[in-house]
């Protein structure tokens, strides 16, 4: 009635995982994937992770990974903003033409305009969103360790709205910095002072409504697609292990983020145009509805998807870079890798 070492080891290696929190550990999503839009529903952390302080290490690793991936893909992000604001039927901006125009106007360094504030806003946004998510979960009052999908969507969307409201002036600054001409502002503070002096405090909340409306389709579709792909994989292939492997994890995250972006893209474009309004001197003030009507009338439905090509071009490199950096930072911070 004895078992040897190999039998004991094989039982633990091959026994199917039935503990849901353990499966969750493999499927971290929002802390790993940073595609420039921080509208995803926050990850669940197990009781053990909360007690041991692993949760903040995950968030720090995710923030660092986001900073590196955003910096690496910043030229494509700036091109997306320029195409969203300036491209039209009469001014058909292509990718190569856009890059050439940027380099000609301000040299190679101009490709990274607006990246500084884009990286700076990661820390406050992630921290506020995580804290708000935990508080909303308590308010919902569920006694289960893991929330159901509709509860996660509700809590995640509300947490996203609180975080976005808190750091929204930084979003406006990012757009203005990305669109600025050479020598227009000496830096972020100079840009903020100029906006405040010429347009008042209200300018820092331009495009706020379409931004808030964009959270629901982005977070909802991203979460639904990710959960569907995850459950499909677990049902079909998780025979001996719940570990999906790097490729499956990256593929699920990339597909779900892309679907979420596609759904909310028209609102993101309108938000960017509203944020940029005063940067075109003498431009009349327009509402969200008026802008939608104007784009559909002058450019058709295609006009709502200007800049989509560079946006999608940066998804795969952004996801790949953020994953690699996240894994390395996790090891540095002493997070257990499974």
UniProtKB/TrEMBL annotation:
InterPro entries: GDC-like (IPR002167), MCP (IPR002067), MCP_dom_sf (IPR023395), MCP_transmembrane (IPR018108). It is found in: Mitochondrion inner membrane. Its main location: mitochondrion. Keywords: Membrane, Mitochondrion, Mitochondrion inner membrane, Repeat, Transmembrane, Transmembrane helix, Transport. It comes from the Eukaryota. It is a multi-pass membrane protein. One of its GO terms (cellular component) is mitochondrial inner membrane. The keyword Aminoacyl-tRNA synthetase does not apply. It holds the Pfam family Mito_carr. Solcar repeats lie at residues 53-139, 147-232, 244-332. One of its GO terms (biological process) is transmembrane transport. The keyword Mitochondrion applies. Belongs to the mitochondrial carrier (TC 2.A.29) family. This is EF-hand domain-containing protein. It comes from Hirundo rustica rustica.
